[in-house]
Amino acid sequence: MLELMAGAEAVLVPSEWYEGGLPLVALRSLSVGTPVVVTDLENICADVLADDVGWAFPVKNPAGLARTLAGLIADPTLTRERRSRARSSYERRFSPSVNLARLEEVYRSVTAGSPAR
């Protein structure tokens, strides 16, 4: 699956579910340097838009999705630019080493009796 993601122009993640951050499929896509097309639910699109590694379309809006995909197809240069940022966004925000450091900080703060950042 990762090989297919890596070869794609973008990965579509049309989630309507208010999750605790990016869905795993979006994280996997970024990990192989492929931009994502996500719904505009804030918890899903915030990091994607902040790092400019994909596109967001209005949730439950097929016409909005069609416009977003048409824009993606119409501007292959932008897609390539976002591809180059996707992997670095993953490394900076979501990589195993980053998540381990966050978890260790939580454990340190709990064992020290101070609140986590």
From TrEMBL:
The keyword Transferase applies. Its EC number is 2.4.-.-. Keywords: Glycosyltransferase, Transferase. One of its GO terms (molecular function) is glycosyltransferase activity. The keyword rRNA-binding does not apply. It is an enzyme of class 2 (transferase). Residues 3-87 form the Glycosyl transferase family domain. It comes from the Bacteria. PANTHER family: GLYCOSYL TRANSFERASE GROUP 1, GLYCOSYLTRANSFERASE. This is Glycosyltransferase. It comes from Blastococcus brunescens.
